[in-house]
Specification:
The complex is a heterodimer. Chain A is mainly alpha-helical. In chain A, 77% of the residues lie in helices and 0% in strands. Chain A starts with a helix and ends with a helix. By secondary structure, chain B is mainly alpha-helical. Chain B is 66% helix and 0% strand. In chain B, α5 runs antiparallel to α6. Chain B starts with 9 loop residues before the first helix and ends with a helix. The mean pLDDT of chain B is 91. Classes of the chains: A mainly alpha, B mainly alpha. At the A-B interface, α1, α2, α3, α4 and α5 of A face α1, α2, α3, α4 and α5 of B.
Chain lengths: 147, 166
Amino acid sequence: MTASIATLVLGFIIGYLGQRSRLCFVSGYRDFILTHDTTLLKGVAGAFIGALGGFIIFGLLGSGIIGFPMIQQTSILTRSALIITIVAGLGVGIVGALSGGCPYRMHVLAAEGKKTYWVYLLGFYAGLIFYNLGTVHFVDMLKTVLK
Amino acid sequence: MSLRQVKVSPLQAGLVLGFGSALVQAYFKVIPPVAYGVCMVCHPKDLFNWIADHLLHLNWGYSLASTNWPLLTVVGVVLGAMVAAYQHGELHVRSARQPLFFFINGFLMINFGLILGACPIRVVLLSAYGNWLGIIGWVCIVIGVLVGTWTLRWVAARTVARSTLT
């Protein structure tokens, strides 16, 4: 229950801040590529610095930051994991650039009342059902084949 | 100073997001997996599958962090953005453009995101955690955005060239 309430509160805060700041984890790279504008890219850097600072501080306080830093754990770098990460990462980047933002930004824009992004979220959640019915089994098969 | 005049920079919002995600992992049991404080593909999946599992017994998987209660990040984000938009007079229903294009984009985004196991936010969190797959995923997302942006630029240039010819 605590996790539910905590994520609801954190979600509310970042939703509010995201609407006010136009923070986006795809547009930051796109704006830098197109116009060398670093405004949104600073948001991505901020998230990295904030998370890193948080993990270090809470890790030193000895609370819930298990296995940090994971940089020495190279056992996760299996062939199947690498191939899947590279293909899916490229897919997320290309689709994000084409649609003009990351899923976080799309939820914020949908909450502003833009029907374009309601349709995006309709596809998003229809895609989730498709993932549960088909993609997840395909990925499991792929992992076995690539092992 | 009233709330209406408060301005937030992306850097400030990013810092709060990053630190908040570490905080919910450290003190509010949003773990396992690690660096799971904010994810805009995995948390919607957890919520959706948790409801599907409890109402329809479909046995669709969700993370251990939402075993007892689902993670409500996506509900919070929508509510927070709606409140902010309403407060600043930016909450207006606007008609849809290119609905099929955006529907397909949404469909593909969640599938690629769930295969990756992260959204563009979580790869940043995973990278901060020192996870190699997070770092590789982040690099690949940036390369993907580069390819997508070049594609859009190429399509736009071709459209302009065609319109000047006719």
